[in-house]
Amino acid sequence: MFTLKNNFKILPFILIISCLNFLFFHIPFFNFVFENINYKSLSGFFVITSLVVLMILLNAFVFFLLLFLSQRIGKFILVLFFLFNSIAFYFVSTYGIIIDESMIGNVLNTNYEESSSYFSLKLVLYLIFLGVLPSYLIVKSKIESVSLKQFSILSSLTLLSALFLVFVNASNWLWIDKNSKKLGGLAMPWSYVVNTSLFYIHQHKKNEKEILLPDAKIKDNEKAIVVLIIGESARRQNFSLYGYSKNTNPLLSKTQNLFHFDANSSATYTTAGVKSILDHKETNDLYEILPNYLYRNDVEVIWRTTNWGEPPVHVKNYQNKKYLQANCKEDYCGYDEVLLNGLKEQVLASKKNKILIVLHTSTSHGPSYYKKYPVQFEHFTPVCKSVELSNCSKVELINAYDNSIVYTDYILYKTIESLKQLNSYKSTMLFVSDHGESLGENNLYMHGIPMSIAPKEQYEIPFIVWVSDASKIKVKKMDNLSQYHVFHSVLHFLNIESPIYKEDMNIFEYK
User: What is the spatial distance between Cα 414 and Cα 307, in angstroms, rounded to a whole number?
Assistant: First the structure.
């Protein structure tokens, strides 16, 4: 029996580490395989066996290469793999996420307040038993070095074996290719290693200089104000306005001049969803977004946020959560209602006739839905109070989420009432969510599943519009909208002429 005082031969050591990596962190990977292939058939059995052997062999090859080049650096990287694997495995197994490039973007753009909400004893246990203990074994083990000749022979045999398995599985490549995104997002540690690299490569391209849009022209001096409220994780099916059985919209349901549309988000995560709401068209390029464009063309723009993940916003009045709370003395200052504090006074102080206000909320962001609303909005009980959502009953989880929608209803209603008091302006409010949310359907929680395989709960969103009587504008009858309708609708409402304006993407028309 090996002990930490013995020297490990390098081949048994890397096979042990590779097998531990396989056994500890690939249950979700093979759960997906077993659910999507006929494992009782000969070909299905062969695919599964080949995937097991390939995973162990290829990981062993990489670990072997690292240790051969430098045992100190190799051990350090292996320790990082096990620590990160344990954390990644916790989130994959607890929330049913896929670690693709978009999920890496979510992780890297998450602030401390949000990331701390995921902390739990279960996460600590995963980290200790699946991360720290194997890392201790790796650090304390003494590994015998091998010659270049031995390394070359062993590496060649490993790669030839892997290539043989790939070749004999040629008939199954169609299935593997079809499911490659999900398989790649569940394979540790390569899911986050590869996708982190891709994220930074693509982010570097996105951080190139912003592409300016053609100049716009304000066509009249009529006072007009648009309030764009960007929802967070608000899924359409839980709004009673859309037919949900529970009354989650007690105030909006009684509001005149209110319209709602079916809409789909362009992504299932915040950064891409918010960008789509502010972009003039579907694009991966960094074009000038709506608030920057209007601000540059002499519109008063006020951006208030309790959230994160927006593209670069270049406006004078950018007010984040810390700023807003510092200037708020009310009981609601810890919640999204702080976005409305002093807003009417700020509008009245403006010397411009055209105003865009963007309120970026965080009201329905999980996993701690119950912390997103004041206690008086807890209309549905009992509620889930665990960050491990799978530990809550379905009723508790949905109640907590629905209460956040009730609070959203109140914020939208209060915004409308404030606009009614600004009777010298024609005004409108648009509420569009960045994406939807999974609440345990198909054992998925929250959001971030790649759009190609995302369930409808993560992309079917509300698109709610209110217009003032003074606006003399009506809302068109339109079918399913996209987030890109926002840009052109705002231009029309403010009566701004632009070469990029598209009438078919505008929801307003004059009476």
Answer: 19
φ and ψ at residue 250, rounded to 5 degrees: -65, -25
Query: What is the C-alpha to C-alpha distance for residues 299 and 314, in angstroms, rounded to an integer?
Result: 13
Q: What number of helices (H) and strands (E) belong to the chain?
A: 18, 16
**What one-letter code names the amino acid at 428?**
T
Cα distance between residue 211 and residue 234, in whole Å: 30
For residues 67, 70, 72 and 73, what is the CA-based torsion angle, rounded to 10 degrees? -90
Each residue's pLDDT tens digit, 403-433: 999 999 999 999 999 999 998 999 999 999 9
For the chain, what's the residue count?
A: 511
Is the pLDDT at 246 greater than 60, yes or no? yes
Give this prediction's pTM.
0.76
Residue with the larger pLDDT of the pair 425 and 107: 425
CA distance 233 to 231: 7
The rounded distance, in Å, linking the Cα atoms of 343 and 357 is 9
486: CB partners within 8 A, 6+ apart: 228, 277, 278, 290, 430, 432
Looking at residue 321, its pLDDT comes to: 92
Helices 148-168 and 42-69 cross at an angle (nearest 10°) of: 160
Q: How many CB atoms lie within 10 A of CB 219?
A: 10
- How high does pLDDT run on average in the chain? 90
- DSSP per position, 383-408: ----SSGGGS-HHHHHHHHHHHHHHH
Tokens of 389: 């959502």
3-class DSSP state of 2: coil
Start-end of H helices in 96-189: 101-108, 112-116, 121-126, 133-140, 148-168, 173-178, 180-184
275-302 confidence digits (pLDDT tens)? 999 999 999 888 999 999 999 999 999 9
Distance of alpha carbon 245 from alpha carbon 229, whole angstroms: 25
Query: pLDDT tens for residues 155-202?
Result: 898 888 888 877 776 556 556 666 777 788 889 998 889 888 888 877
**CA–CA dist 299, 321 (Å, integer):** 23
Report H helices in 422-494: 485-493
Q: With contact defined as beta carbons under 8 Å apart, do 258 and 441 qualify?
A: no
What is the chain's alpha carbon radius of gyration, rounded to the nearest angstrom? Answer: 27
Reduced DSSP (H G I as helix, E B as strand, rest coil) percent helix, strand, coil of the chain, to 5 = 50, 15, 35
Q: E strands of 265-362, at which residues? A: 300-305, 317-319, 354-360
Cis ω for the linkage preceding 250 (within 30 of 0): no
CA distance linking residue 184 with residue 26, whole number of Å: 11
Phi, psi of 494 (to 5 degrees): -85, 0
Residue 212 DSSP label = P
